[in-house]
Amino acid sequence: MGLADKPNTFRGGPDADGHYGDFGGRFVAETLMPLILELEQEYEKAKADPEFQAEIEHLNTHYIGRPSPLYFAERLTKHFGGAKIYFKRDELNHTGAHKINNCIGQILLAVRMGRTRIIAETGAGQHGVATATVAALFGLPCTIYMGEVDIARQQPNVFRMKLLGAEVRSVTSGSKTLKDAMNEALRDWVTNVDDTFYIIGTVAGPHPYPAMVREFQSVIGREARGQMMEAEGRAPDSLVACIGGGSNAMGLFHEFLDDDAIDIYGVEAAGHGIETGEHAASLTAGRPGVLHGNRTYLLQDDDGQIAEAHSISAGLDYPGIGPEHSWLHDMGRVNYVSITDSEALDAFQLCAKMEGIIPALEPSHALAYVAKLAPKQSSDHILLMNLCGRGDKDIFTVADALGVKI
Amino acid sequence: MTVVGGTARIDARFAALKKEGRAALVTFVTAGDPSPEASAEILRALPEAGADVIELGMAFTDPMADGPAIQRANLRALASGITLKKTLAMVATFREHDTETPVILMGYFNPIHAYGVEPFLEDAKIAGVDGLIIVDVPPEEDDVLCLPTMASGLSFVRLATPTTDDQRLPQVLANTSGFLYYVSMAGITGVGSVDASAVDAQVKRFRASTDLPIAVGFGIRTPEQAEAIAGVADAAVVGSALIDAIAEAAPGGTAKVVEAAKTVTANLAAGVRRAERTDKIIRNQL
To answer: Which residues of A touch B191 (CB under 8 A)?
Structure first.
C-alpha cells in the first residue's frame, strides 16, 4: 500500500457500511439482516445517550472493578534487561479477563432493546463465563455454545457457566472448536429472531459488532493512557497484545493508533510452528476471505474451505481475525507477529515465578513476544503489554503440557 | 436449436410451466455427496424423475444457515474430494445431456472468493450454470458478487424471509433475476414444517411488488407439503428430505443412492402436479 493511501486517521473506521478498507461488512443471511440493522440503530442511539454511558460507567466501577491497575513489572524488566515493562492488569477484572468489558455493554443494549434471551459462543470459556455472568446479573436466560473439544480442555469454565445459571450446549459439528460454536450460535439466532440477543465476544462478525465490541473494550486504552501519564508523564513507546479474534488488542490499540511514534505489536498464535501448518496465525499465514459475517484474513485451503486452527490456548484457536486488524495489517500500522505454544508456555511459567502472577495462556503469547522485544530496547523505552486474562482456567492444560499430573 | 443459458434458461423454464399451468419442483442436492460419481448420476436422474429446476450445493466447511442434514452432506462431499472446479465440471457433463433444465449453484461466498469472482463467473457460464444463490451475500454487499453476476448474464437469485418487511423488500428485489426464493421460516434448513396458509399470504405480498416467479423452500419434506405449496407459489424447493434419502442409501452404493433420489423426487413431482388445478383456480381468481 502506497503512502498516498495512508488515511489522515487510523481511528475513523469503519465506514457507514461497516467496511475497514476491503474488510468487514455484513455477510449474513437475509433473515439476520433486519436484526443487525436494528442493532446498529439501537447501538447508535445508546452511544449518544448519557444515561447509557452512565450505566456502563457505574457497572465498570462497582461491578467489574475498573479501572484495572497499570503495573510496573520490575523483576521482569530487570530479567529481560531492556525496556521498562508495564502490564495493564485486565486479568484483575471481575471474571478474570477483559471479556466482561464488552458483555456489560451488550447486555445493557439487549435490555434496552427488550430482548429476553441471551446467546453467545465461547472458545476458552472466558467470554462464556462473562456472558453467563451478565445474564445472571440481569436475570435473563442464557445459552452458551462451546465446541466439544474446548469443553474437554476448559472444564473449570464450563462448571462456572453452569453455576451462573447458563445452559452450555456442546457443539459437535466441524472441528468442534470456536468457529463451530460461532456457526451454531448463528443458527440459533436465525431460528429465534424475535426474542434473542447474540453477544459476540470479539471484534469480528457482521457490522456493527466489530466496531461496537471495540468501543466497549476501548476503555482499556483510555485508562492506560491516563495511568501512563501519571506514572511516567508520557505515552508508552510500544504496545503488545495477543490476538485471537483481537478484542483485547483492539481495546488497547485503538486509543493509540494515531500516535505515530508508538510501535504496536499484535501477537498471533503460531501453535506448533507456522511451518507445520498447525497454528492460528490468520494474518501471518492466511488469505482474505468471508466467514461469520465479515471479510477478513482467514486460514483456508486453495478451494476456500476453512482450515482448522491450532493453539494450546483455546481463546486464540480461531481461523479468522477481526476485520479492523486485517486492515491495520494491510496499512502497515500494526506489526503482526506470532508465538508458538512452547514459547507461550515458557512465558506463562516465567511470569508466575518472577511476578507472582499466573497469566492466561492467551496473554502468555504477548509476554513471550515481550521477551524477544524488550532486551533490544534501551532502559528508557516504555513497553505496555495487555495482561488480558488470568491463568487459573489454564492450569490443567499447562500441567498436561508439562507432563505433570494434578 | 440455439442453446440459451443463464437467466434466459430459467425464464424459459418458468414460462413453459406457466403455460402448463403448474408450479415447478426445485430439488437441492450437494455436489459430490456422497461421491462425485454418484452425485453426477443423481444430477442426471433428477429431471427424468420430475425435477424442473436443479439447485446444486457448492460444498463448504461452515454452512452457517444450514441444519444438520445439509451440514453432514457438505462434509461428506468434501471428504469425497469435491472442489468448486469439480462442481463446475459436473455441471458441464450434465449439460451434455440436458440443455433445458436450469442449474443454480447454491452455497456460501468464500469458495467463490477464493476462486476469484471473475474467473468463477466465466467458468460457471462455460459450464452451463444459470444462476447463483449465495446465502451470505445480502443486498448490502451487492458490489462484490451480485452485480458482476448479473452483468455476466447469470441470475442472482435472492432470498426473502419472514423478517423481510415491506420497507426492506424493494432492496431485496432491486438487483435480482430468475426467481425470488422465499424462505418460509426463520431458521435453518431441514428443521420444522411449512405453513402453507402463512406462505400464501407472504407470496401475495411479494406478487404485488414483483413479476418474478416465487419459489418457496424450507420445511417442505413430503409430497403433500409440496402439493400445498405448489398450489400457492410458482415453485416448491425440496432439499433436506432428498439429502436424507441420499444419506440413508449411501452405504448401499451408487445404484441404490440414485434409485433413492429418483423415488423421492418422483413422489414430490407427483405432489406438485396434483396441485395443478388448484393453482389454475387461484390464478384465474387473481
So the answer is: 191
* Interface contact flag, B164 A173, Cβ < 8 Å: no
Q: Sort strands A287-291 and A293-298 into parallel, antiparallel or unpaired.
A: antiparallel
The reported pLDDT for the residue numbered A403 is 96
Provide mean pLDDT across the span A114-122. Answer: 97
| A179: three-class secondary structure by DSSP | helix
Domain boundaries, chain B: 7-285
Average pLDDT of span A372-384: 98
Is ipTM strictly over 0.90?
A: yes
- C-alpha to C-alpha distance for B144 and B134, rounded to whole angstroms: 12
CATH topology of domain B7-285: TIM Barrel (3.20.20)
Structure confidence at residue A74 as a pLDDT band (50, 70, 90): very high
Letter for the amino acid at A376?
K
Query: Distance, in angstroms, between A99 CA and closest chain B CA?
Result: 24
Name the residues of B annotated as catalytic. Answer: 55, 66
pLDDT at A76 over 80: yes
Whether residues B113 and A288 touch (CB distance < 8 A) is answered with yes
* pLDDT greater than 50 at residue A1: no
